């Protein structure tokens, strides 16, 4: 049932959000010259997939977890995208393609070994990664891998249709700030 809602909402989001996506893409083009950011992430069953987001950092920024990147790497437009969570909109494509769900554990990077091991021990890779979830609305980010894996596992075990909509609603109204940046 959740996959059906993922398909419906991601399709509708891409269709009706197209003018916003195009506008953000054009602004991003003038901001960094390369508005889309693609990065290989760990998906369901630890299979790799390419995550797509709007670029929020300068082009020469190292490919590391957000909490390890310097806040100076984020562009002014990137700050706006992060604050409003609009940088996540292109991930609707990942949801539509089946790489992700709207709700699930945020997909990690392959070099985040501690997080990957903790998630593997807890069975987190048995579900699709998501755009939002319990950890995100609880302000738990990838800088605390054990706590994040534990929270992801708790979300997986208690996810109902009601909670699916609750996490989406909480994200839309601004609950959760996402990954913290180093100053």
* Form type: globular
Number of helices: 8
Ranges with pLDDT <50 over ≥5 residues?
179-183
- Number of strand segments: 4
Question: How many angstroms separate the termini?
Answer: 42 Å
Could you explain the architecture of this structure?
With 183 residues, the chain is mainly alpha-helical. It has one domain. β1 and β2 form a beta hairpin. α1 packs across α2. The longest helix is centred in the N-terminal third of the chain and has 15 residues.
Observed structural traits:
47% helix, 11% strand, two-stranded antiparallel ribbon, 4 strands, 183 residues, single chain, two-stranded parallel ribbon, 8 helices
Summarize the structure.
The chain is mainly α. It is 47% helix and 11% strand.
List the helices and strands and how they pair.
Layout: H1 2-16, H2 18-32, E1 36-42, E2 48-54, H3 76-84, H4 91-97, E3 101-103, H5 113-122, E4 130-132, H6 134-137, H7 145-158, H8 161-172
Parallel strand pairs: 3-4
Antiparallel strand pairs: 1-2
């Amino acid at each position: 049932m959740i996959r059906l809602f993922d398909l419906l909402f991601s399709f509708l989001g891409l269709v009706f959000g197209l003018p916003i996506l195009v506008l953000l893409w054009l602004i991003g083009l003038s901001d960094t010259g390369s508005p889309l950011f693609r990065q290989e992430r760990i998906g369901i069953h630890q299979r790799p997939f390419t995550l797509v987001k709007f670029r929020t950092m300068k082009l020469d920024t190292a490919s590391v977890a957000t909490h390890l990147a310097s806040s100076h790497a984020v562009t002014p437009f990137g700050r706006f995208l992060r604050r409003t969570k609009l940088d996540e909109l292109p991930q609707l494509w990942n949801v539509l393609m089946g790489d992700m769900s709207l709700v699930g554990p945020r997909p990690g990077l392959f070099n985040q070994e501690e997080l990957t091991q903790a998630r593997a021990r807890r069975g987190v890779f048995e579900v699709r990664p998501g755009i939002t979830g319990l950890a995100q609305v609880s302000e738990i980010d990838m800088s605390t891998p054990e706590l994040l894996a534990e929270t992801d596992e708790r979300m997986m075990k208690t996810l109902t249709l009601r909670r699916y909509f609750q996490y989406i609603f909480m994200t839309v109204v601004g609950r959760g700030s996402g990954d913290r940046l180093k100053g």
